[in-house]
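Final report, closing paragraph on structural work. Over the funding period we assembled a curated collection of sequence-structure pairs, and we close with a single example.
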Amino acid sequence: MQKQIPDPSGHPQFADLNRRSFLKTGLGGAVFLGTVSVTAGLSGCATQPAGRLSAVGTRMDASYQFRFLNEDDIALFEALLPAMIGPGLPEQPQARNLAIAGTIERIDAGIHKFGPANQKELRQMFDLLNFGLTRVTVARVWSSWPNVTTAEADAFLERWRTSRIGLFNNGYIALTKISNVAFYGYRDFWHLSGYPGPPQYAVDALPQFQNA
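Its predicted structure, as stored:
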């Protein structure tokens, strides 16, 4: 698991992730992903950003408005984050759930700042993972994401990590990078990556640390 050095502002540093194509699919992969994405939309899969979600049941900040991730994407990351972050997550159930919810919100905020090309690639990959037919046949995940266990999520990630298919390797890298940046780049979890935080003079001087 790769841990990212946090940005001193306390927010995930997604700028470096936006410099080049995530998936590097080639023509065949691009056509495949595009076809899956269109089919998923026609089949009734969620296509619009989730917007504001009730804090009841979702543990999301009711004031936060999702601008990229849809409800299926949120369920996807709720299943994958425990496998990707593992022991970095709090053990206490409520704190653990809140940490996952906050990380998903930061993933959404980060992707929202990406350029159109990377947003398109990620949308197509998320559609591939959320569409039932390709989730089963391509990702080899039989249960819907809300019902996937951490062990099953970990097995899926390992299959994509070790796959000989470049699309899957790059998909694994994209999922883990954006998740790790969103989690370890948050000031509450800096210590887990060995980052001690900015020096006190920076905390005192920079406005983003005030009332944090």
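Confidence is low (pLDDT under 50) at residues 1-12, 25-38, 208-212. The radius of gyration is 17 Å. We thank the funder for supporting this effort.
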